[in-house]
């Protein structure tokens, strides 16, 4: 198995992708406390800086202890302050997730960040990545398409902790060039699923 330093820093034309640090708590709070930015994300918005500190510890510090972790702060090169995030889950879905402060939307920033992460992943042993988006959030699906992901199927899920019934579209990108393989766990776990 190929092992890489977890969350290796990546630089693109406009961005620095790096680990979140304790100095980023305010920026992390600004990203995860915005109701609009977090509308289609599973967790509730952060209400206080103390909640942001706990979130940082649980979602980032613990993850960074493990090898082959890809959890990035998206920063502009001009100031290296986080304006969003991109990450790959450590479970068998290898789920791609991302978010960005709304004042930076529609500038191709998340697409640029995701493409850079995919380039790194192609050197790892991760065979594929998946990504899902709420059918009411097609802009997220556009990012998936822009980085080369392919739509596979849709499924219904009672999303927690918001306890909301959602229809998701699932996309996949096979990094091992085994293009016939499709991750089926979401399909198998959902009573309602369709292509």
Helix content: 10-25%
Work out the strand percent: 25-35%
What's the order of the H and E elements? EEHHEEEHEHEEHE
Largest sheet: 5 strands, antiparallel
Structure explained in plain terms:
The protein has 195 residues and is an alpha+beta fold. The chain has a single domain, classed as Gcn5-related N-acetyltransferase (GNAT) (Aminopeptidase, 3-Layer(aba) Sandwich). 25% of the residues lie in helices and 28% in strands. The protein is built from 5 helices and 9 strands; from the N terminus they run ββααβββαβαββαβ. α1 packs across α2. The longest helix is centred in the first third of the chain and has 13 residues. The protein starts with 9 loop residues before the first strand and ends with a strand. The mean pLDDT is 94.
């Amino acid at each position: 198995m190929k092992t890489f330093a977890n969350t290796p820093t990546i630089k693109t034309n406009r961005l620095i992708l790096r680990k979140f640090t304790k100095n980023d708590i305010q920026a992390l709070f600004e990203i995860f406390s915005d109701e609009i930015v977090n509308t289609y994300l599973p967790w509730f918005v952060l209400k206080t800086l103390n909640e942001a500190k706990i979130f940082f510890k649980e979602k980032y510090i613990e993850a960074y202890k493990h090898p082959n972790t890809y959890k990035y702060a998206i920063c502009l090169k001009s100031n290296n302050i986080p304006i969003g995030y991109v990450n790959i889950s450590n479970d068998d879905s290898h789920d791609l997730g991302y978010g960005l402060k709304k004042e930076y939307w529609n500038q191709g920033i998340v697409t640029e960040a995701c493409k850079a992460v995919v380039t790194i992943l192609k050197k790892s042993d991760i065979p594929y990545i998946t990504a899902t988006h709420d059918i009411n959030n097609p802009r997220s699906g556009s990012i998936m398409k822009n980085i080369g992901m392919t739509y596979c199927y849709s499924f219904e899920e009672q999303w927690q902790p918001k306890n909301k019934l959602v229809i998701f579209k699932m996309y996949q990108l096979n990094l091992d060039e085994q293009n016939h393989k499709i991750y089926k766990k979401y399909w198998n776990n959902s009573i309602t699923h369709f292509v």
